[in-house]
Amino acid sequence: MNTEIKEYTTEVSGVTSLSQLLVEDLGSPCLLIVKESRITSDVSSYIRKFFENASFLTALADDAPTLELAELFDMVIPADGIDEWTERLFKDKTKWAADQITACFVKSRTGTVEEVLDCESRAFYRLMAVKNGGSSNE
To answer: What is the reported pTM?
Structure first.
């Protein structure tokens, strides 16, 4: 398995078993991209918990994934053009701003509607405070 940690993303290729992700140093990405997968069907409860509790978004770069595999990830993206896709996704965002936005999407994975709205509200005010040079009122 090969891991490439970038500023916004961690790209993992050559994965044969998702359990490899449990012991790999993935850094602190906004988005984990698993690509060039030759993944065998090994979806254990540990794997499900990893994806449910991940502090980042997850994407499977695969043009024809199995349904069981695709359901684990937050999104499925085309296998080609990953660099261009992520460049558009994070365009004009600082890492801090991308982290704030990511936190809202992550919260939507398991949080209640109220928790998601609270996270979005707090992130909005933090982002606006940085943009306007003021305080976030938190």
So the answer is: 0.85
